[in-house]
Amino acid sequence: MAEFSGPEWCARFPGSRSIVDLHPDWRGKVLAFVSALERGGARVDVQATLRPPERAYLMHWCWMIANLSQSPVAVPAMDGLGIDWTHDGNARRARAAAEAMIDQFELQFLPSLKSRHIFGRAIDMTIAWDGGLSIRDFDGNLHYVLSEPRNGTNPELAKVGATYGVIKLATDPPHWSDDGH
Q1: Helix (H) or strand (E) run with residue 157 in it
Q2: Which value, in Å, is the radius of gyration of the alpha carbons in the chain?
Q3: Listed residue (116, 70, 109) closest to 5, CA to CA
Q4: Of 63, 69, 96, 147, which is least surrounded by CB within 10 A?
């Protein structure tokens, strides 16, 4: 018997916040970039790295139901996951459960079903600094990031990250990946 959706599902498929859990051929690039950030005086807080596909599924569909008027009846099932998004046809309860899941997951954007996080090829991290940031790119060239914003959305910082193979997704403030998606 399927279990109704709700915030209790959010802890069942935990994701990782550890850079060590990233894909082996990308992990070193991220470690080098984060190290350069920290040496330059930036504060880095990692929120997410590797994400199980079940977690991506739950995150995606709760957002769709709560924010984009997705009919819970039309949500495709995921093999091995006994979740009932419909709440026996009670649309109000289904939407409330989806909203509670969004709050529990602390979502701010529509999560992808094919997120690079599933493959260990994405990282969500908050980056901040005071004043100017002195950071070396992958080739050792020194860059002074003096412009605002003084966070991970800074376009100058994104260019430095790209030299490491850590590419900024401009539409999602904490999200960096191996291909910009």
Answers
A1: helix 155-163
A2: 19
A3: 70
A4: 69
* pTM score: 0.88
Q: What is the pLDDT of residues 97-144, one digit of tens each?
A: 999 999 999 998 899 999 999 999 999 999 999 999 999 999 999 999
Helix 53-67, helix 91-105: angle, nearest 10: 130
* Cα gap 125→6, rounded to integer Å: 26
Side chain identity, residue 4:
F
pLDDT digits (tens, 9 = 90+) for 25-74: 999 999 999 999 999 999 999 999 999 999 999 999 999 999 999 999 99
> Measuring CA to CA, how many Å separate 40 from each of 18, 56, 116?
21, 33, 27
Amino acid at 87: H
Contact 66, 58 (CB under 8 A): no
Query: Closest Cα partner for 40 from 117, 113, 142?
Result: 142
Nearest to 126 by CA among 154, 148, 85: 154
